[in-house]
Design brief:
alpha+beta; 4 strands; globular
Amino acid sequence: MAKEIVKFDVDYALVLCSRDGADCVYWMTARGRGGYFVTVVVDSGTGSFVETMVEDAGPYSSEREADMAGLDAAAGWMSDNDVKIHRKDYRAHLKRLKVR
């Protein structure tokens, strides 16, 4: 299915940041044609870049599913780039999504 970029506003986005706050991954979900979509943005102070990744596995059937895909992408980027996060922040997102 075609990618759909969510209108992104960092003030309303969900975020997962590194322990030192230098690297953050933001994501937002929105309803689009055929379901829900998520846009994920990496803001890396360490690498001095901002990168937009679009989850193209959607459309997702629910906002929760799209939100979980955003969280998975954020945590995956952090892990792939050896960026340390506060586990409590990740757990707080899981709790918010009602994932055990």
